[in-house]
């Protein structure tokens, strides 16, 4: 079975590369028809220089839609072939101005004729197809500019993984997992403090018995996430001990846990949620902002030395 038929649209990038390689080989034959000593990949840059001389490499890159580095490399090759010159601009010595040489300018009439013929031949090629590839590419590029492929793939992956994530209420059999998950991130960035060990070694006594709650996340049979609610008073709970295993991060588990404990806090009658964190924990802070938390300076001093930011979320 053909690889592309087997994978279908999942191999879109590879199939486009194959088609690009095919067109590049055939384009070289077209240049030979017109006796033009050019390589296909030089075409956008050289055509622009011949049509609009005096542009910088940055301007050329913007015009043809290639990277500055790629255009710079093509210019170097064109200079080596004696087709263009790269001279420092009079107004800005840091800015190279690209112009065709006499040899390069002599190619311009034949290049224009070739471009016109190729345009006509390509229009005829596209007319042979049910779907106009040129227009379809424009549509696809527009769609990718609005939402790139990695984010699209991640959304599909997250939906699939979401069905495999199970949220659980804490039970004593999960105490070792609760402790393991939290020690992983604390030891990585900070030091474990006595208050940490009290809550992690005895969560029933220091969290649950005082009116709190602990949510856990299981993925593929393993506990990979945890988050706790600590009761501060009748209407305020602290979101604490949020942790996701390193090899399970990026799967949306933290967001699922956060949403679950916010919903639980509402069910418990809370009107305010509070948390303490550290600005080194960028992804965690982004998650808290996504859940609706905002920075506050109204909290009491934290018992944790690692805390340098306090946040709150009003549930009313």
Automatic annotation (TrEMBL):
Q: Please give the superkingdom of this protein's source.
A: Bacteria
Question: Any signal peptide, and if so, which residues?
Answer: none
Alphabetized PROSITE patterns for the sequence: GNAT (PS51186), HTH_MARR_2 (PS50995)
Pfam families documented for this protein:
Acetyltransf_1 (PF00583), MarR_2 (PF12802)
Q: Which GO terms describe its molecular function?
A: DNA-binding transcription factor activity; N-acetyltransferase activity
The cross-references to SMART domains, in alphabetical order and at most eight, read: HTH_MARR
- Start and end of every N-acetyltransferase domain? 176-316
| Sorted UniProt keywords | Transferase
The record places domain HTH marR-type at 9-149
Q: What is this protein called?
A: MarR family transcriptional regulator
